[in-house]
Amino acid sequence: MDPLVIIGNGGHSKVVREIAILSKVYEIVAILDDCFSEITMMENIVYGPLSIVKDFNLTVTKFFISIGDNFTRHKIFQRLGLAEHHYARLIHPSAIVSKTAAIGYGTAVMPNCIVNAEATIGNHCILNTGSIIEHDNLLQEFVHISPNATLTGSVKIGMGAHIGASATVIPGKIIGEWSVIGAGSTVIDHVPSHCLAAGVPAVIKKRYEKRRQEV
User: What domains lie within the chain, and their CATH numbers?
Assistant: First the structure.
């Protein structure tokens, strides 16, 4: 099995680790997080800060950033400076992924997720538990689709956008980069970048361009 280094030690990391184990492709050799001030070993797994990432053999080791927040995941990616091909794809065995769908590097496909025909999923995305990504969707990098959210056909999601739990986006709509769709919302219109939209139907509740520009 290929060695795998998990970046992040929070709740999202727990799910990612289980998927990695179930894949039977990877062996977790380290969990790195700056919550660790020193290097320790437990059950043959190294625990330590992010600063030791370059101590691993990049020719054989794969990495995975297991951090749920899109902004933080993006910043960690920039900090590590690793090429995309160094990152693993992790797909839970209960997920249904079309043979014509494309899944990017560093992306996690969680239990019972469905990714249908000709969908394209960018790098470092999270398709969370029970989410549905219908045909011809296009998701840019660092997108998070929360549990039980549904993207119907031909939806486009911009970089860093977050679709809340059980939200629905109707066909052909565009969600701008770094925007957030509130949990349980129904999106029937395009949503611009750098804003929060929520409700049934979803309307813009807040704009936060300054925060997005700092990413």
Answer: 2-86 (3.40.50.20), 90-213 (2.160.10.10)
pLDDT digits (tens, 9 = 90+) for 102-113: 999 999 999 999
Q: Which of 135, 144, 162, 194 is catalytic?
A: 135
Output the six-digit token pair for 157: 């999601």
Angstrom distance (rounded) from CA 214 to CA 34: 21
Q: Is 135 part of the annotated catalytic residue set?
A: yes
Residue with tokens 């020719």: 59
CA 89 vs. chain centroid, Å, equals 10
Residue 23 amino acid letter: S
In sequence order, which residues have a C-beta less than 8 Å from that of residue 59 and are 6 or more positions away?
A: none
Residue 53, pLDDT > 70, answer yes
Residue 183: φ, ψ to 5°: -60, 135
| pLDDT (0 to 100) of residue 210 | 54
Lowest mean per-residue pLDDT among 41-45, 90-94, 207-211: 207-211
